[in-house]
Amino acid sequence: MKIGELARAARCSAETVRFYEKAGLLPAPARSEGNYRQYGPAHLERLRFIRNCRGLDMAHDEIRALLGMIDHPARDCGAINHLLDEHILHVDVRLRELRDLQRQLVGLREQCRAEQAVDACGIVQGLARMETAGGPARGTHLG
């Protein structure tokens, strides 16, 4: 199948297919005499796997690790379990960060209960007074 057919079957764009190829997550396909990419069922299966992992917010490095393990099907799946356990911990951290963010936003919203001039807005004043957080805005599970 051509790239557009693969993309439709995987419910993504041709650009996404090209991106995953460049990232090394999807192997390069064979080429036709006219230099068109020619994908097979294995490409579709792998692309769906990648898209499902991304849907679970897995990073490319995590997906790459999983794909490496899949490429050796006779090995023990303990490393896969460990990878998923680490990802679950990351999700727990993100949930805490999002709850903290929500509390901050609710606190800001409470500073302006009525419509008024922008220069008197408690939200704007609160944002101007807040300490700027150092470092990355959020934690990462990749270190």
Automatic annotation (TrEMBL):
Signal peptide, first to last residue: none
Keyword DNA-binding set for record: yes
Domain HTH merR-type: 1-69
The entry's keywords: Coiled coil, DNA-binding
PROSITE patterns found in the cross-reference section: HTH_MERR_1 (PS00552), HTH_MERR_2 (PS50937)
Transmembrane segments annotated in the record for this chain: none
Annotated Gene3D superfamilies: 1.10.1660.10
Coiled-coil regions, chain positions: 91-118
One Gene Ontology molecular-function label: DNA binding
One GO process term, biological-process aspect: positive regulation of DNA-templated transcription
NCBIfam families attached to this UniProt entry: CadR-PbrR
Protein name (Swiss-Prot/TrEMBL): Cd(II)/Pb(II)-responsive transcriptional regulator
Source species of the chain: Castellaniella ginsengisoli
